[in-house]
Amino acid sequence: MFGVVFPNRSFPMDISSFTQIDTFHWVLDMNTFVGEAYDQIREMCIFLLNNFTLPPDKALAVYVQSPGSPFVFCGAVTLQRPSAVLSLIWPEPGGQMLLTAPDASAPLSAKIGVSVEDLAALPSLDVAAEKKIERLALKVGENLFNFMQSFCGVDGSKLVVPMDILDRWFKKFQEKAKRDPEYLKGFAL
């Protein structure tokens, strides 16, 4: 049905590496894979296998769960997008030890969950990419605001800026990007 690869960490793994919960849900226990270093796994490539046909209105959704936390959606693959490299944004661990027997306790483990879901019900196919774009936009906006602040005057409770401030900022922004290719990389996180 599907396979996964953890870039620079694993060989391709098929569905047999996952525990099947029911017809549409699978879980990979990260303790058996990497022990407690689950948070070092930051990317996962998931792909549909050639002989598997997912209905066009369905997706294979990927979730991560830190010990004691709820599952968090990371992204999905579909027939139109049969593979993807997803950033794994692990939530903060929470909770206590899980009691498995009256006198025994075992630590909760981190997990990766995969499930077949309605495509229309999913928020996005790549959550991390959207967050990166949002952070980039905020950093560029902050750069513009700081530039404008250095040229503005105050009129009561209003900032007054020259009419050509956007043109001046954009030219300066472009010149810095041409001079220093690393300049734009500083905006991406």
UniProtKB/TrEMBL annotation:
Residue intervals of the Hikeshi-like C-terminal domain: 133-185
GO molecular function, one term: nuclear import signal receptor activity
Hikeshi-like N-terminal domain span: 17-121
GO biological process entries: protein import into nucleus
A UniProt-annotated Pfam family: Hikeshi-like_C
Cellular component, GO annotation: cytosol; nucleus
Domain of life: Eukaryota
Similarity remark: Belongs to the OPI10 family.
Protein name: Hikeshi-like domain-containing protein
Native species: Corchorus capsularis
